[in-house]
Amino acid sequence: xxxxxxxxxxxxxxxxxxxxxxxxxxxxxxxxxxxxxxxxxxxxxxxxxxxxxxxxxxxxxxxxxxxxx
Length: 69
Ligand SMILES: [Zn+2]
What we know:
Layout: E1 15-17, E2 23-25, E3 32-35, E4 38-41, H1 45-53, H2 61-68
Bound molecules: zinc ion.
């Protein structure tokens, strides 16, 4: 089971929860990233960039904190 997973994208207009815990409606230009087998959504391209630069200072900081508790 070493095959890389690439979670499918939702349909345009589907409600999705962002990494910042906001509810948005998925659009073609919604920034997304894949974390493990999970697909992440970002409210803004700057959120995605922050995540790519350093996940621990991005919107996902809570996720990482939760993991280390
Ligand atoms: Zn954000």
